[in-house]
Structure formats: structure tokens, C-alpha cells
Amino acid sequence: MKTPYGIFAAIILLVTVGVAAPLASAKSSGNSYEYLHTQPKDPQLPVRWDPCSVITWSWASGSKRDYRLTRKALRKVHSVNGMRFQQVRNREANITMKYGRLSSGEAGRGGFGYRGQQDFLQVATSGTVTYSRHTRRYNKTQRLHLMMHEIGHAVGLHHTDNPHDVMRSGNYQVGAKFGPGDKAGLRSLIAGGCSELVQTASNLTVQSNGHTTTASWSYPGKYPDLLTSARVTTGTQQKSVSGQQTATLPGSCEPGETVYLELMSDYGRSLTTTQC
Fold first, then answer.
1. What's the pLDDT tens digit per position in 4-25?
2. CA 20 to 30 Å from 255, out of 25, 142, 155, 244?
3. Are 122 and 47 in contact (CB under 8 A)?
4. How many whole angstroms separate alpha carbon 149 and alpha carbon 170?
């Protein structure tokens, strides 16, 4: 990222886990934003954090002033797209915030690593935001702008080309206020929540012969390979299966009894119910 003094600095921290996806190769149609990483199977779909979970963060090093400004930057992200952040101890954090030694003139770096096998959906797992110590001479607005920019990378955004956006590199003159491209990009990272990627099962049927109960279903979602397991629960029994669309539990299912089917993934879960 450019410093307020016009020196260009790189902002992307490549911390990849698993198979790397292209860096910000796809611009969202009709909006001025790009993703830091995109999915191998769908370049319009971002690699992102689980939209159903809290993103934990830690403050590894830095001044009290910058700690307070970082908290403010996280609140600004939350106010735009509802992402939830919680501070934890360093070793437990999804994203670590810190001072660090960067290249000459480099103001900050932000990015994240992700995991997932080739041709499967990649999921963000660990991120880092690093601020250069020399930026301590920046004024308060410039510092907050820098933190918003680097946190934007850490949650999934690349640069925009909109002169009104914080995510435009070195665009300190806009102050510490997210612009239209920033907001559109941030909101796209949580679009649909869990339901966009983990849809509910269809055609859930239950049959019982008095000794066992068998549940069967189909999955209409676009990405069935992101599912890690399915869990079927009756009034007295529970069973988890992986890679199957049927499960047999011991015991009978009484007429009118509710059966629950949960589909699990790294992006969250969906719930479907039916009755015996």
C-alpha cells in the first residue's frame, strides 16, 4: 500500500495453506471491488471466512492508541456487513494484528491463508495484519485508514480502482470512511450467510420397520463436495455419516415423531426436519 508520502508498498501477505487460488483475478460484475483469493471451481466466488462464525483476533504488539484504532476499524467492518469479531489470546486467534519489519516504505500488509483440496471449496483459516513501525508518525485518520485497508485484505478484499474507496491503494485523502466499492465488496463476503453455500436437504424421507429407522435425502446445492458430514437425530438416537445420503439408526420411529437432518460443512450447517 502507498504511504501518505507517495511511496509504493505491497500489501498482500501470501500465507497459503493447501492449494493456492489466483490472486484477485476476478472483478465482480457491476461493482468496483475484487477478491483477494477466488475459488478454483468458480472465479466469481471468493475464498472467505465462515460467514456463520465469529472471527477471532489478537493484538500481538503495538501501541495502546493503535490497539484502540484497530478495534474501531473492526467495528467499521461490522457496521457494513455484520461480520463478528472477538478478541482472544494470540495462539487462539484467526487473525493476528501486530507491528512488524516490512520493506522500506511499506506501510502495512494484510492477508490470510486458507485450506481445502484441489477442486473443493477453499476456506479461510488464518490471517495476519502487520503495520510498519514507521507509520507511527501518521496522524490518527491516516492510521485508521491504514488499519481499515489492511483488515479489508485480511477478510477477503483486494484493491479497488474507485477514488472514493479505502481499498484503493494509498488513497489516504478519502479519510477513514468506507466508500461504495468497499461496502459492496464487504457485503458480498457474507452474502447469503450459510444458506448460500449450505442449502437444506430435499426429499427427506423416513422409514421404520419396528427395529431400525432409515432416513434418506438428496442435496440440491451447487457445491455438494463442501459437505463434511450429515447428522440424523430422532427422539432417542443420533447418527452421523460422511459421503452418504442415507443413514440407518437402531430403534423404531413413532408416528408423528420429528426427525432432524443436519448437513455440516466448514461454512456452517443447514437443518431439515420431517415426521415419521
1. 433 222 222 333 222 222 233 3
2. 244
3. yes
4. 9
